[in-house]
Write a structure and sequence with these properties.
This protein has helices at residues 2-25, 29-54, 58-85. It has 86 residues and is an all-alpha fold. The chain has one domain. The longest helix is centred in the last third of the chain and has 28 residues, at 58-85. The chain is flat and about 50 Å long. The chain starts with a helix and ends with a helix. The mean pLDDT is 90.
């Protein structure tokens, strides 16, 4: 089981690398924001897996905070994009 979870962590890290490439080369701000959302989602997934692997329930709280910060980031982006459009 831990081997499968370790492989899952590696796959998530590779997806973060793909998101980093999209942030650096993304033609539009919306694509860059979606890649940043990928970072938030991937970090939550990684923290949940690490919490299970390392038997550290405190990482669940950290994952919850990351999820909330990712949501707030998206809301701020939408508000700023709407103000810029006006």
């Amino acid at each position: 089981m831990s081997t499968a979870l370790s492989i899952t962590l590696i796959v998530i890290l590779l997806s973060i690398l793909g998101g980093l490439i999209r942030i650096l080369r993304g033609p539009s701000p919306a694509e860059r924001m979606l890649a940043a959302q990928l970072f938030g989602t991937a970090s939550v997934a990684m923290l949940l897996i690490l919490s299970h692997l390392m038997a550290m329930p405190a990482l669940l709280d950290v994952a919850l905070v990351f999820a909330l910060l990712a949501a707030v980031t998206l809301v701020c982006f939408v508000v700023l994009a709407e103000e810029e459009r006006r």
